[in-house]
Amino acid sequence: MSGLFITIEGIECVGKSTNAKFISDLLNKKNIKTHVTREPGGTALGEKIRKILLFEQNDSISPLGELLLLFAAREKHINEVIKPNLEQGKWVISDRFTDASFAYQGFGRGLGFDQVNQLKQIIQNGFDPDLTFLLDAPIDVIKSRRKLNPNDRFESEDRQFFERVRQGYLQLASVFGDRVKIIDATQSIEQVQAEIQSYLLDFIEKTS
Ligand code: TMP
């Protein structure tokens, strides 16, 4: 019996990690075992690649180089963490996955959909999340929640970059509407979690 794969997406400060934990706790209450992970990261090598991607200041990284690093980390994450946990029957919850590469590198950095999709085919060969929550909020709401780190290669990007990323995510949600559920992240945490819970209970029922 194989577990199911849930991902959480959205731009900075929308509450992805808090809600990854919320989803895991809810599944555990339903006697479903879980593994919570994140991208970039999730393995020792992935966490090293994460540090380079977020904080490398001395050497420049091109948009394509960035995408290749992300997929190098992802390949290991899928084969050594995500699939083995699914095969053990656990549900895997990942704070970000390949939709982030479409949104940030494809739309944000301007690489386009096709280049990201080509790498996706090579690395994932049809492997995709079963359910994705997209926590969506306008850029102003996000910027007012927390001071962004000026040393972070992504957080230091300008407003237009985040706007492209947000629009990218919304386009993905409209194309992959069966898999991607948009949650309005401007709501209170209680409202956000009530919505997630209702989708999740429905999903558990449909898949059991
Ligand atoms: P986090 O701080 O939300 O965990 O994410 C780290 C950064 O990595 C975030 O700014 C978005 C970026 N990122 C990409 O640009 N592309 C990707 O494919 C992933 C997984 C993350």
Give the topology, please.
Elements lengths: L4 E5 L6 H14 L4 E5 L5 H12 L7 H25 L3 E5 L2 H11 L4 H12 L6 E6 L2 H7 L13 H17 L4 E5 L4 H19 L1
Bound molecules: thymidine-5'-phosphate.
The CATH superfamily is known as: P-loop containing nucleotide triphosphate hydrolases
Q: Architecture in CATH?
A: 3-Layer(aba) Sandwich
User: Segments where pLDDT lies below 50 for 5+ residues?
Assistant: none
What assembly state would you assign to the polypeptide chains in this entry? single chain
Structural class: alpha/beta
Q: How many domains is the backbone divided into?
A: 1
Beta-strand content bin: 5-15%
Which radius of gyration do the C-alpha atoms yield? 16 Å
N- to C-terminal distance: 11 Å
How many beta-strand segments?
5
Q: CATH class, anyone?
A: Alpha Beta
Order of helices and strands: EHEHHEHHEHHEH
**Count of DSSP H/I helices:** 8
Shape designation: globular
Mean pLDDT value = 96
**Helix coverage percent:** 55-70%
Q: Sheet bearing the most strands, described?
A: 5 strands, parallel
Main sheet: which strands, in order across?
2-3-1-4-5
Would you summarize the structure shown here?
With about 210 residues, the chain is α/β, with parallel strands linked by helices. It contains eight helices and five strands, in the order E-H-E-H-H-E-H-H-E-H-H-E-H. The protein has a single domain (about 5-205), classed as 3-Layer(aba) Sandwich (Rossmann fold).
